[in-house]
Amino acid sequence: MITDKEEAKELLLEYSNKGLKGLKEARKKGELDDIVAEIADARVDIYNSDLLDWLREGLNYQIVEEAIDEMGFPTNEDGTADIIKAIQYGQYRANENLLHEAVEELLG
Predict the structure, then answer these.
(1) How far is Cα 13 from Cα 32, in angstroms, rounded to an integer?
(2) CA–CA distance from 84 to each of 23, 54, 104 (Å)?
(3) How far is CA 44 from CA 7, 26, 47, 87, in A?
(4) 16, HSE (Cβ side, Cα atoms, 13 Å)
(5) Considering the entire predicted model, what is its pTM?
(6) Contact 91, 44 (CB under 8 A)
(7) Longest Cα pair distance anywhere in the chain, in angstroms?
(8) CA quadruple 106, 4, 46, 74: dihedral, nearest 10
(9) 4, exposed or middle or buried, with CB in 10 Å at 0-12, 13-18, 19+?
(10) Helices (H) and strands (E) in the chain, counts
(11) How far, in Å, CA of 7 to CA of 57, rounded?
(12) DSSP notation for 44-65
């Protein structure tokens, strides 16, 4: 889980291998959204206890609800609801939001 905008900036700059210049190049090539998505996905917690702790913090249930509204409620292979995957959807969305805010500050 990405904890704040500063961490998001660091992750973006590290990912590009060329710092700010690399991010500007990625934006020119239309690859910035792919970079954001890849980082956001890679930083989603995988342990149930971490996910449940994150859900309890602040008002994170709201972002989980927003993610479900957009992506649908995830199900297991047998068709039953998967609440843990739903929380991961919310974490992905929270990561994505922080990364987009960081991009805006870095690139304007």
Answers:
(1) 12
(2) 33, 11, 30
(3) 14, 23, 9, 10
(4) 22
(5) 0.92
(6) yes
(7) 47
(8) -80
(9) exposed
(10) 6, 0
(11) 18
(12) S--SHHHHHHHHHSTTHHHHHH
| Spatial separation of the C-alpha atoms in residues 47 and 94, rounded to whole Å | 17
pLDDT tens string 46-102: 999 999 999 998 779 999 999 999 999 999 999 999 999 999 999 999 999 999 999
Which two three-digit tokens encode residue 30?
Answer: 């239309």
Record the tokens describing residue 107, joined without a space: 């690139």
pLDDT confidence of residue 34: 96
Instruction: Tell me the C-alpha distance between 31 and 23, whole Å.
Output: 9
CA distance 22 to 65: 34
Overall size of the chain counted in residues: 108
Can you name the residues that pair with 81 across neighbouring β-strands? 75
